Amino acid sequence: MSELGKCTTTNPALLAWVEEMRQLCTPASVFWCDGSQAEYDALCNLMVEAGTFTRLSDDKRPGSFLARSHPSDVARVEDRTFICSRTKEEAGPTNNWAEPEEMKTRLRAMFTGSMAGRTMYVIPFAMGPLESPLCKVGIEITDSPYVVANMRIMTRMGQSVIDKLGENGTFIPCLHSVGAPLNDGQPDVSWPCAPDPANKYIVHFPEDPSIWSYGSGYGGNALLGKKCLALRIASTMARREGWLAEHMLILALTSPEGKKHYIAAAFPSACGKTNLAMMQPTLPGWTVRCLGDDIAWIRVGEDGRLYAMNPETGFFGVAPGTSRQSNPNAMATIESNTIFTNVVQTPDGDIWWEDMGVPAPARGIDWQGNEWQPESGTKGSHPNARFTAPAAQCPVIDPDWESPAGVPLSAILFGGRRQTTIPLVNEAFNWEHGVFLGSSAGSETTAAALGKAGVLRRDPFAMLPFCGYNMVDYLRHWLSLPGKTDRAKLPKVFFVNWFRKSDDGKWLWPGYGENSRVLKWVCERVEGNGKAVETPVGFIPSADALDMAGLDLPAGNLDELLSVDLEGWRKEVEDIVAYYTKLGSDLPESLTASLAQLQQRLASAS
């Protein structure tokens, strides 16, 4: 192991870039990260001394820490996220675009001297197992030790990546600064950032490719291996190289008879991906194993099937709502060696958040560092509070979660938060119809992005904030897959909705572990023996198709969950038409045909 902070690379391109950025940002020192435990411990101690971290009780959460961000720095900033492709058309109508050289000129001015008085950390990291054919190496430069600690959990980081890079290997440059230089003698703050949202920039240059992020220290804005590289930049690389970078969980579902199916699922942020990925099935004898809860890289294997791989090594999960009831395996995962951000600190050195499933402490310190009591009438945790935990600690992690080849997919699910209209589950008629379902997916917004929650927005493939190029070309890329392999080997496609409510506002479906009943039907459909009825919106389970043994569902709920609300679907179609219009006139003919066919089927069902 190298001496802490020392450079061990001989890669001339990397050395030259780091030196260029040092001269631009003018840090007080440069620290090369090796990913070791000793380094992690030293950085955590440094942040405890600086007030960025609070060490939690070793009796409660050994090896764990609490951080509190600035109130302006709590979520993705989609309006400050840019795709700077050569032309605006390449970025498409769903992305913010700026001319690349103009943006670089603007950013160079902002990064000039931005790390004064701070340490510049050089983070070598890899997305995907080092032996994987899809593995991508990034180098993140940052002035945030919080970012370094989180990146060690979320990525394969350190000397092993430098070794893989070697002398001639290529890397994706990722430059990050919190945008808070320190003058001589100026005291630091516990969470440095640019508090004015107008001074935050998360910028992607697909042609380089490279990433520049300024002003935010939070989550995917600053952990540049996550949404920035593994989705926005990777999606552009995947299109060129013939694979897919997707906002999807990966799980393995095994029946009592030992039949194992791998399933990928795309839901918008904070819509239950982590809960589903780690689900404890309520059906006797069925098991779920987790391979990833957020991102999947998918390629066509030598046998013609689609193989999925999780490029990350950790979970950056939403804390509020995570409980022993909703996700006991996540709760077990975060018992130790976890970084918590923007949750309540309890007097006994533990943490708490809303809907944790345990009584609130009589008093505590809230996410803004203020004294807090449950009766105060304010939330103690931010709605987008997070935990960062190693995937290897998950008690149901799949043995093949780090397989360089990935795992073969039997099914792909789309979904979102929809209180009305969308049934519990429906199966696409064919691949093209499945892409249509993904392209028209809508969900009610959550706190994962800044803005008003509860507003319905179209989120194709749950990739609206993460697609690094024109969404129309992205959909065309998905539609090209039958031409790359035997159509019969493609996964079956389904749409699910755990979030339907009755007219009086009550949940129609219990969700969580009971979702295994839906996944069982999905597997039966893959195997060719699940019962279904054909409807205008796809194949829906027949009245006796779902295994309801042991579930005391109120009378009428299942009928409503599996019904097709014709009037609601006609309004849905109107909204899809409006969204397609926003995407532009060159929408793939297959999608407009699927839309027209849906309209015809709904008219015929009148």
Describe how the helices and strands are arranged.
Blueprint: H1 12-25, E1 29-32, H2 37-50, E2 53-55, E3 65-67, E4 81-83, H3 88-91, H4 100-111, E5 119-127, E6 136-142, H5 145-154, E7 156-157, H6 159-165, E8 172-177, E9 201-205, E10 210-214, H7 219-222, H8 225-241, E11 244-246, E12 249-254, E13 260-266, H9 273-277, E14 287-292, E15 296-300, E16 306-309, E17 314-318, H10 328-333, E18 339-341, E19 344-345, E20 351-352, E21 364-365, E22 371-372, E23 386-390, E24 407-415, E25 425-427, H11 431-439, E26 442-444, E27 456-458, H12 471-479, E28 492-496, H13 516-527, E29 532-535, E30 538-541, H14 557-561, H15 566-583, H16 589-604
Parallel strand pairs: 1-5, 3-18, 4-9, 6-8, 8-10, 13-24, 24-28
Antiparallel strand pairs: 2-3, 5-6, 5-7, 9-10, 11-15, 12-13, 12-14, 15-16, 16-24, 17-23, 18-23, 19-20, 21-22, 25-28, 26-27, 29-30
Helix pairs in contact: 2-5, 11-16, 15-16
